[in-house]
Automatic annotation (TrEMBL):
Superkingdom of origin organism: Bacteria
Protein name, UniProt field: Uncharacterized protein
Origin species: Pseudomonas protegens (strain DSM 19095 / LMG 27888 / CFBP 6595 / CHA0)
């Protein structure tokens, strides 16, 4: 994520990954609450709302690494702004504007 979307990601994230728990695939983002302190805010979003063409896009039967690869390389930036809260407001506005045309 950081390599592909470094200009778009909110700067306070220090970890973004896909995890599996009890048959659910989550996008887990971790950010610091305050700069200079190590208090963390951890958010997990169930990715089951994202559908593939014929089935769920991120099944728990697939490895977390494979789901992460699919997440980064199959979803484009426009899909990302509709499925996640990872990008800055400015980045979201720029992406939406470019896809409007």
């Amino acid at each position: 994520m950081k390599k592909k979307y470094s200009d778009y990601l909110k700067p306070d994230f220090h970890s973004i990954k896909l995890t599996h728990s009890d048959g659910v695939v989550y996008l887990e983002s971790v950010r610091y609450r305050h700069s200079g302190l190590k208090d963390e805010i951890i958010e997990r979003t169930d990715l089951s709302f994202i559908d593939g063409s014929t089935s769920e896009m991120f099944p728990a039967s697939r490895s977390p690494m494979d789901n992460a690869r699919l997440f980064v390389h199959q979803l484009d930036e426009y899909s990302m702004i509709h499925c996640t809260d990872l990008f800055t407001h400015e980045a979201c506005m720029d992406i939406a504007q470019r896809h409007k045309s």
